[in-house]
Design goal:
elongated, alpha+beta, 12 helices, 3 domains
């Protein structure tokens, strides 16, 4: 431990704090602490250091992304804007590997919406053009906001998770009764998943690690079933063995799409961890400012043929809740028989 600290202190003094940070030294330092934890008597598991690395990466990214997000279409340093970077990722990866980033709506998706009061029919749950700013749409537009999941999940003895998320998004008051209605998707759509509140950077690393393990196993199996390769290994013919390995690796190359998926999701995780914040503003000018970048991103996505967005509930971190916004209110219909009243406790 003292040796590691001494080496890194020396690097910092020689290189200077700015260069030291630019060289990603803090991350390398954490990796060394993980690698040699048994030597300095650490009882912490390897997962602790990996989580520390994730947190460090998210923090470092937030310093850049949050500033870019505030000025989504402009930049003062001459570098690419947020929307230009997002366009690169979207055009080169997300839109190419749709099955990894888009959700096709189905009749089995769990969608619901809550309203204040009781005694309504299904038409009450269809939103009219908004007079105020919402997260994804400006005033005088009509988007359909729903809670989203792919299956029913319990939250309490009286509420499902979707119902609970609906009430949170409605800013429900405890002790009051609200009406909730299920919706059913009527068009598959082209819905982009921008939630990522159920995925970590470690998960993206596992995508790469799993692919690496799969390729390694295929190469190894190929080498072991080739008599000449086995003979070269036993005879310690290093040059011949290296040629055999290279040939086998050419037969089982790393798949570009797997790496693209992992790194694109890593980027989206960092973006989503920065941009989604609870907004409680009531002043329309302040709401407009808080939602400006979301609305610009929404306009961009609509031009790309996206019909809806899955995004996280920002009202709580105690559960993983997701919402869905559909740009066409007719892409899902309310189900009359599903209307029920729920007490928010």
């Amino acid at each position: 431990m003292e040796s590691i600290n001494s080496i890194y202190s020396m690097f910092r003094e020689i290189l200077g704090e700015d260069v030291f940070s630019d060289l990603n030294m803090p991350g390398e330092y954490i990796r060394l602490l993980d690698k040699y934890r048994t030597f300095y008597g650490s009882s912490l598991p390897s997962e602790y250091y990996l989580q520390f690395l994730d947190d460090l990466q998210l923090y470092s990214a937030s310093l850049i992304i949050e500033e870019q997000w505030q000025h989504i279409t402009s930049t003062e340093d001459g570098l690419k804007t947020f929307i230009e970077i997002f366009d690169d990722v979207f055009s080169q990866c997300i839109d190419v590997h749709k099955d990894k980033f888009f959700h096709t709506l189905s009749e089995t998706d769990v969608l619901c919406r809550a309203v204040k009061g009781t005694g309504y029919d299904k038409d009450r749950f269809i939103p009219w053009p908004s007079k105020t700013h919402n997260r994804w749409n400006p005033p005088n537009t009509q988007f359909l906001y729903l809670s989203f999941d792919t299956r029913v999940k319990p939250y309490s003895d009286t509420l499902t998770l979707n119902e609970y998320i609906c009430l949170l998004e409605l800013r429900a008051t405890k002790g009051k009764v609200y009406s909730i209605c299920d919706f059913q998707a009527v068009t598959p759509g082209n819905v982009l998943d921008l939630s990522y509140n159920d995925m970590t950077i470690a998960d993206t690393r596992r995508i790469i690690d799993q692919h690496y393990d799969d390729v390694f196993q295929k190469v190894l199996d190929d080498l072991l079933k080739t008599p000449q390769t086995v003979s070269n290994a036993k005879a310690h013919k290093k040059d011949a063995l290296m040629r055999d390995i290279q040939q086998s690796m050419e037969n089982y190359p790393f798949q570009k799409e797997v790496l693209e998926e992992a790194y694109a999701k890593q980027y989206l995780i960092m973006v989503c961890s920065c941009i989604y914040k609870k907004v409680d503003e009531t002043d329309e000018d302040k709401k407009a400012l808080a939602y400006k970048s979301f609305q610009i991103l929404c306009q961009y996505l609509r031009k790309k043929g996206v019909t809806g967005i899955i995004y996280p509930c920002t009202r709580t971190k105690n559960v993983i809740g997701k919402n869905l916004v559909l740009f066409n209110v007719n892409d899902a219909i309310p189900l009359e028989h599903s209307i029920r009243e729920r007490l928010y406790e």
